[in-house]
Every structure is written in structure tokens, then in C-alpha cells.
Amino acid sequence: MALLVLLGLLDSCKTQLVPRTTFAIGSPGRAVTHFSSPGIENTTTLLLSNDNATLYVGARDSVLSLDVSEPGVMKMRSKVDWSPTAQEVNLCTTKGKNKMDCHNFVRVLQSLNSTHLYACGTFAFSPKCSYMNVETFSDSSVRAQDGQGRCPFDPFQRNTAVTADGELYVGTVENFLGNKQAISRFLSRRGRTDLKLDGSPGWLTDPTFIGSSFIPSEGKVYFFFTETSKEYNFVNDYTVSRVAQVCVNDEGGKLVLQKHWTTFAKAELRCQAGKDLPLNIIQDIFTLPPPEGAPADDTLLYGVFSSQWPMVSGQSAVCGFRLGHIKEVFAGSYYKLNQQDSSRWETPQSSAKIANPGECGMHDAADDKLNFVRSNFLTQRSVTPVDKGLVLVSPDQLYSRIAALRTQAANGRTFTVLFLLTESGFLHKVVLLDKGPHIIEEIQVFQQPQSVKNILLSISKGVVFVGSSEGVVQIPVSSCLSYSNCAECVLARDPFCGWDPDRASCAELSDILHGVVQDVEQGNAAEVCEASQSSTSPCSSTFPVEERSVQLDKVVRLACPRASRQAEVSWQGPDGSLPTDLYLQLGDGSLSFLATRRTQGTYCCLATENGYTQTLTVISVRASATSLLSSVQGPTLSLTIVFIYLTLI
Ligand SMILES: *[C@@H]1O[C@H](CO)[C@@H](O)[C@H](O)[C@H]1NC(C)=O
Ligand SMILES: *[C@@H]1O[C@H](CO)[C@@H](O)[C@H](O)[C@H]1NC(C)=O
Ligand SMILES: *[C@@H]1O[C@H](CO)[C@@H](O)[C@H](O)[C@H]1NC(C)=O
């Protein structure tokens, strides 16, 4: 029953979720800068310098520094080679690993302070890490140390890393076999010990780490991962998405929980609408800071989710979670791990509660309290999405990475814009409207599906970077000039773009002095654009006419240049409407018919979108008589020929 409801819901979302425009790789109209270089591969880990002028890229056997100070430019500044020796590669292959994977795939790249980066790579299934001086960025900056526990051995295993006050927080697989995972702190400063969370029952059950976020106002690092659930013991191998937390001031216990987290707590992160099946597998998470002046609790965490069940496996959804709600859940009640059977969770008596799990400062607590938090760390409540629902459900796209920003429209309203990377290699730009999500455009960023890829949004630069095995791509968040007239500019509903009446062009809001025309919420071009064409005679008489000479009795095909995939395309002929026994309108919007005396005349292709109709093309067809057959055929026969013609091409 729940499933039927879910499928019904997915179906209803389908129509509005077609991207309005599509830009294939290399197509004009949408500026995309591509970086790739011979001998440089797997450019998948991205880090922007503090001054936003340099993009560091963790690649295969190297770390690159790219100059990105100018918009639309990505130039290699320097490159640090960092490869395993032939001997180390040999050792890797003798252990049964594929030679292709016995490289050093750089998977951790973090900024420690103003002068140093910290990088870790898989190093032929024997991870290594190194400090890198950003000023003398050269091969001599690699001084490798053991990277076990900080970086996966296998380049296809996911991991997460984040720095807070120069200390490194990681979630990763930490052995060669791939069956041990941990959440740890390394590079601990001020004489503190490194901490971890590992094999103890119930802490982590076969997790896959997705992301992490340091929230300074809370003094906490949040981790996001999936794991096998033990609390739902009525479903076998049920995967749950989790948010976990640790406090940055944790120092570990003195006897109990020595060198281990005393502030670890975890909760289910549930992306679910009403009573439908949850989309239970988190793929990526993005932390959107609160609007200016709003409290930290208004921080939103946007996650992309997919499903474990085959019935819904081609679908994905976006859910937003409020930090304030996550804090409430962690401050609430907890399950207790059964001491005899660690796969069982019990609901304890509230009188048994002697400590607040997840509370910062726990490392100073007495042993009995530490023993308590050691078995009470899973919250009873789940974290549920804002507005109790899904921000977006895509029935046919598997989204895998997400970034988000808030931007102010011309009327002062703030809109959230999501950037979603699809498995098939497109970047979807989505604006969240009251009525639901609207996909402004999709831009192809890689050609082959990529198992490892990352997305990095820089608001100050106004660009999105995507790193994959095909290279690094830089995409400006908007490209207003690609909208050729006021209607297109308004119908796009891009909050970054507005129509500038003075210059008669679609431009970035910040570049328009006054009189900006924009309607993000409604996209009502008929109302806000002057010289509206949507009146009684939509086939505009001012439109330039294209002449077309054809032979009588030959099949004619008129193409209609299509701007928007959300528009409905229709044709008008010499007598207005087009009888279906003479004309065929094809799926790509083109019109086909047989040239006869009757079908001569002026045709115009119209696009109707969001209640606004505009002329896309006007073609005048003149037929000249050369054929012998001309007047013999009737309309029915003509149409048959059109059909035969169409099945042949
Ligand atoms: C770099 O970007 C960050 C985040 O977008 C911003 O806060 C900062 O002001 C920028 N720095 C410079 C020098 O542009
Ligand atoms: C940055 O960190 C590195 C490595 O710990 C250290 O050697 C260096 O002195 C630090 N630089 C500053 C400016 O603190
Ligand atoms: C590295 O790139 C190659 C293609 O260039 C790809 O086949 C391989 O899967 C990538 N490996 C990783 C770990 O990303």
C-alpha cells in the first residue's frame, strides 16, 4: 500500500521535472571550462584555497595546483608527483589487486593552516599521508607518513575528511580487507590524544561514509553514512542513513573509553514523505549555512537519497534537514544496547538515565557515566526532513552529488538553488519554488558514468567545479546571455537573471542598474514582458520569414528550433489549423507534409509555455511544378507516402 502511494506521488512529479533546457558537452550557449592534461588522470578530489584563487586537485599519483583566479580559466600552476615505486606496485599486484588500482589515488585534501595542506592517498593499497607547503608546492613537499585509518586502501571505497582548528576528522575503511571502518581524529593538537571509534559492538555496522561537516557554533563534527540497521530487526539487511556527532573538545576517557570518543551519538536520518517507503540510502550531503542574521539552528543539511528496493531503484530524492531538529533528536532519549546480544536495542527506563549521551565535556565524567554512554548512543527518534517531506523526487534521474546556495531575487525574496549531479553526467540546476522544484537547466559535464566524482561550489566565484576521471570542469552558476529575449529570460525563472530593458538583454541581476524584469515565482512572461506576442494573433507578423522552395509532391519537413523542453510546440499553416489527414507533427517538434498546391503558404511554429505563446520560426513554402504525378494523388495516399518516408529515414 505504502509503495503504491509512493509510486503515485512519483508519477505526479514527473511532468514538472523535465529540465527546461539541455546543454550537451561542447554545445554553444553555455560557457563551461574544461581542464585535462595528458598523463593526468582521476582528478577527483577538490579543494579551493582560502583566497579562492587556487584549486587544488587530488589526482592519480599527483596533486595539482590550478590557477582559477580569472573566471573561465583553469591553468596548471604546479604539480607534485606522488607515486608508489615499482616495487610497491608489484607488492600490490601480488596481493591480487588490479594493476589499474595499484596507484596513489589522492582521496584526502584538506587545508590545515595558512601555509600547509594535508593530503592522503591510497598508495597502491597501502595509504600514505603528507603535509604540503602551499608556497613551495613541489615534489619535495611530499614527506609521506603512514596513512592507515585516514584514507581507504581501495580507491573505490568512499571516505570523508574535514578539518577543524587544524585537526583532522575522518570516516573511512581502515584495513586492506575492507571490513574495518572507523571515525577518528588525527593530528590532534595541544597535547591531546587522537581518538577513534572502531570495532566495539553496535558503534558502526558495515558503514559507508558519505560526508562530514564541522559546525563551529556547536563545537561538533557531524558525520553522514549508511550502515546495516540493527534496530529494525524485522527486515534483513536493511540499510539506514545516519547522522552521527562528536564534540571537537573531546579528549577521550581516562580509563573507560580511553583514546575513544566519549561524545559519539548517532541517529537515523530519514528521507521520507508521510507513510511512504523511505529512500534509505544517502548519496551525498551539503551544509547550507543559515541566512544572514538567522540563528545557527537554521542551518540546513541537504542530502540526496536513493532506495535499496528494486521497485524504486531508478529514483532519487532530495531532503533538507534542519540543524535545530538534529540537535533536538540528539538531546532526546536513547536506546540501550543489549549487553549479551549486541544486535539488540532496548528501550531503557527513563530513571536509568545517568548521563546525557552526546553532550560535550563528557571526557571529564565519572566511569559509570562513561559506561552509560558507551551503551546508549543510538537515539530513539529519527531525524526527519523539514516541512515533513521531500524537497524533490526524481522518477528517472539518479542524483549522486549535491551543492546548494541561497540567492536574492530582484523583489528581495530569497530562493534556494540546488546543483545536482546525475549518474549519467549532467548537472541539474534547480530553483525551489513554493509550487515545487523547477529545473532551470541541465549541463553535461562528463560523457561516461563516473564511479568517483566530486562537486565543489564556490559562491564568491559564482562557479561550480566538478572533478571526475574525465578532468575538472568549471561551470558558472548562471549564463543569462543565453536567453535571447525577455520572455525566455523570464520563463527560465533563474533567480540570477533578469531582463534589462535599457540594454534589451538578459543579464546578471548585479549588472542591471534599474527597471529589472523578473518573475521567479510565477514566470509570467505575458504580464511582465512588454510587446507580448500572446495576444490574438500569436503568429507574429514582425518575425523574419524564411523562404523555402520545394518540389510539388515531395515530402517537406519543417524544423522548429526549440528553446525549452517545458514548452508545447504547435504549428499554424496557411489556413490556420492543420488537418491531421494532411499533416504530421513529429516528436521532435518538426512538421511533415506533402507539397501540393493546397499546402503552399506560410507556416509558423509556436511554443506555449506557462501560458505564454511565442513564435519560434516562420517559413514560407513555395511549391514549383515539375512532377508528372501532381494532381493524381488524393490526400489519403499522400499521407501514406509521408508515413513510408518517415519510416525510411
Ligand atoms: C573566498 O570565498 C569565501 C567563501 O565563499 C568567502 O567567504 C571569502 O570572502 C572569499 N575570499 C576572497 C579573498 O575572495
Ligand atoms: C602549519 O602546520 C604545519 C604542520 O603542522 C606547521 O609546520 C606550520 O608551522 C604551520 N604554520 C602555521 C602558520 O601555523
Ligand atoms: C581512474 O580513471 C579511469 C579512466 O581514466 C577509470 O577507468 C578508473 O575507474 C578510475 N579509477 C578511480 C579509482 O577513480
TrEMBL record:
Pfam families: PSI, Sema. This is Sema domain-containing protein. Residues 538-617 form the Ig-like domain. It is found in: Membrane. The keyword Transmembrane helix does not apply. It comes from Albula goreensis. Belongs to the semaphorin family. GO terms for molecular function: chemorepellent activity; semaphorin receptor binding. Residues 20-477 form the Sema domain. InterPro entries: Ig-like_dom, Ig-like_fold, Plexin_repeat, PSI, Semap_dom, Semap_dom_sf, Semaphorin, WD40/YVTN_repeat-like_dom_sf. GO terms for biological process: axon guidance; neural crest cell migration; positive regulation of cell migration; semaphorin-plexin signaling pathway. Residues 1-15 form the signal peptide. Keywords: Disulfide bond, Glycoprotein, Membrane, Signal. PANTHER family: SEMAPHORIN, SEMAPHORIN-4A ISOFORM X1-RELATED. GO terms for cellular component: plasma membrane.
